[in-house]
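User: Hi! I'm working on a homework problem where we have to compare a predicted structure to a textbook description. Could you give me the structure for the chain below?
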Amino acid sequence: MISDILPEHLRPFQALETLDLSDNHISALRMASFPPLPLKYLHINNNRIVSLEPGTFDNLSNTLQVLKLNKNRIAFIPQKMFKLSHLQHLEMNRNKIKMIDGLTFQGLSALKSLRIQRNGLVRLMDGAFWGLSNMEILQLDHNNLTEITKGWLYGLRMLQQLHLSQNAISRISPDAWEFCQKLSELDLNYNHLARLEDSSFVGLSLLVRLNIGNNKVSYIADCAFRGLSSLQILDLKNNEISWTIEDMNGAFSGLDKLRWLLLQGNRIRSVTKKAFSGLDALEHLDLSNNAIMSVQGNTFSQMKKLKRLPKMLLSLCSL
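Assistant: Happy to help. Predicted structure tokens:
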């Protein structure tokens, strides 16, 4: 039933490293709520916090490594709110944050992961994550973001995982990935993408896993995946792909290391001889839940590592 954090109540605990105040009735965090303590882990999940006051955590700047503020009512993060040079993990899931201004997270130079899921985020301003030069994981799933631009990705040079599933993304700007070319995993499941242009993934030569399942993709440009030389898993399930596989030659050219290709639940009716040319390393190909009526002969002959094809496909082609 704790409703307030008073510094005099915490001051006696001079050796305290972990403080969990979750599941209480705290409604505000004020400047100097926390006296100087050697705290490493601070959890204030599932309270009633509406606002954050700059300076709240300043006394913990030398030691705090993990801060969790999930399931509160926070609607706005003041600029330079977090002056925590040792913080590595910050979670603010299930709040009410709709927009993030530039420089909001300046002061978190050691941060490795940031989670702002299920907030209803609509807009990320240019430089929203500037200053997070060491961050490796950014999770923004279950929000209302509509596009990916280099403006809000500015400065994320060490980013390795970007999770954007369950948003409303319909556009990837041509130069979106200029500042985060170390990405190894990109999750765009359950968005509104209809087209994959030849510029959609430029610069992501270290990408290993790309998830674009459950979108509305019906068009894939000839060079959409060119340059993804490290890609091993490509998930395109439950889209509206049809003519891409039927009429294009080498839609997946350049994916020399691709091991998994998931195309189930699309609108593919026929597979041409060159549809999968260049996929010599492919081990798993899923074409289930399509309406495939024909497969040209020798379509899969170059894929020596392919482990299994559905009987339905085997009956339609001669390998």
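For your comparison, note the following. The chain has a mean pLDDT of 92. DSSP finds three helices and 22 strands in the chain. Good luck with the assignment!
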